[in-house]
Amino acid sequence: MKRTTVDVGIDLGTTNSCAAVMVDGEPQVVPNEWSSDYLTPSCIAINERGEMVVGHAALNVLRKDAANAAEGFKRFIGSNRSWTFPTSGASYTPEQLSALVLQSIRRDLQTFLNEEVDSAVITIPAVFGELERSATLSAAREAGFGYAELVQEPIAAGLAYGWDRTDDERPFLVYDMGGGTFDAAIVQVVNGQLVVRAHRGDHALGGRDIDEAILNRIVGPQLEGRVDPTALDRRNGELLSRLEDAKKRLSRIPETGVPLEGSVNDVSGRPVDDVLPISRDDLDPLIDQVVHRTVGVVEELLGETRLTVGELRGIVLVGGPTRMPRLRTLLEERFGDVLQTKLDPMTVVARGAALHAASVIKRHDAPPERLASGVQRLKIEYSPVSDQPTVPVGIAGEGSHLPDGCSIRIARSDGMWQTGLIPVEGNRVITQVSLGEDRQSVFRIEMLDASGASVPVEPDEFAIVSGLAAAAPPLSKNIGVSIATPTGPTFDRLARRGDPLPLSIRKAYRTTKGVRAGDADVALEVVFLEGDSDKPQRCGKIGAIELTGTMIEKSLPANSDVEVILKVTPNEALRGIVHIPYLNRTLDQAFEIKPSEVPSPGELKQSLAMERGVADRLVAAGSDLPVAVSSVDSEIEDDLVRAEGGDAEA
Predict the structure, then answer these.
(1) 397 and 458 part of one domain
(2) Which of 207, 250, 458, 573 maximizes the CB count within 10 A of its CB?
(3) What is the pLDDT of residues 568-602, one digit of tens each?
(4) Within-domain flag for 363
(5) CB 199 within 8 A of CB 154
């Protein structure tokens, strides 16, 4: 059966990525070429031969030559951060590195399916805003996907668990802990669609925090005085990899060892080959600290949505660290017997993405293939996913009219239902098809001419999935414009976090200065931003619409009316429109979103100094708030020192 829906889902993860594809109505996880593993490490490296490698091969380089490897770049997608590889001197943005991972996965998909893969549904965290979403879509295009659609990771997890196919509309919680990030989201069926009601997260909390705690509190004391302290560094990729492997083994056995095998040197420079003992009793207190922080995030989320654990259908676990027995025990102690664990937490999001992809009809931007003589091309209109027992279907000729006097019959592939012959009227047939009990119903199309002879058609099949559609993701960050006020520039919100998409919002303003016709040095500039701060400089810049004097034939006075319109549509470029009634002029722009600026350590030190000044003024006014943030101030100072020394994670 030639695919009429996208069918391919990709979980583009911070630590690992995974792909799944719909096969016979069910999502099937796709192995990669390197090791037949279902996971592709989200890692890029340049090996000793100067070759760019991806996934497991890159992870091997990371363990021995961390300077020539990059990982964790998904957290910076949409920014101007870059990774430089000393071996080649080449620099890559997070968007370009993500494209290389997607390109590798696309090759794996094509090998597995033995067909061209040009479309995919790609998952993103619920917290991603327009900057990150745009960069992810750009990475997909660079990887060779002609069309890509985004779905939020919590929605994908809910689809994988089949919670789109029940009458129970109670919300559920997605608990997603990855290698470097933690996200929690409340998902619910609303008006027949799965939607994210609310989400919270900590993008500096994950499984690697446990690895680093093992390094600092278990391994470090055992090697104290014997090794160079700089060897016990979180940039020691080979050592951290061995600690991660030991952590995974402790999920199955109570005790294990960490074979150093020369991953660190002693104070005289000789390799250390010890095997360091580590037990689950050693590890559990370190896990407890991380899990307690995630529980705090979950409780804040429940408080925000005014929900209790008893009102949830369950808690879906996502991410490798959620396999740890201690983590599950702690969550059960706090929330009760509500954990959903029947699906592999490492592949559940990719499975859900494939299920969503089965509801997305493929786009055919390229010219259609030439058909053999006598084959009739059809255009089929239908909903590829439905929670109703019957679904309307329309069939018409595409590129040419259907033969006079012909009839069409649609039959379900299980042989249990068919329409009978339906005469074609006005070049089309409109009917209803009945879905079967399986998750996916496949229908075959048969056309007969006026004499009763069979006419070959293309396509001759289509499929419909039983279930609910995933709603378009709500806005994850506020979007607005920078405006002038007596106290300085202010971020004025047009659309707010949580607003449903698509949306179109308009608001009236007045200009603070005039624009003289023919003057190139003076302009009216409307800057579109996204973020949560009232200060424009703390928000991400989406783009700007500018009107200069050279663009107008008559001058625009100060205090003129200006109407600003914002349009946001899923999987399309954000549009800004500025209408100036006095000039009868409308400026309409689809923003090609550029990476946001990542401040340098020096700029961050200046900002920290300013905030310390604010804290000092609060102390003088009698506030005890600065006491509460003093430890955070110390942590920031430590991170800045490491950042100035080249520590990318800091």
Answers:
(1) yes
(2) 207
(3) 987 777 899 999 999 999 999 988 766 655 555 56
(4) no
(5) yes
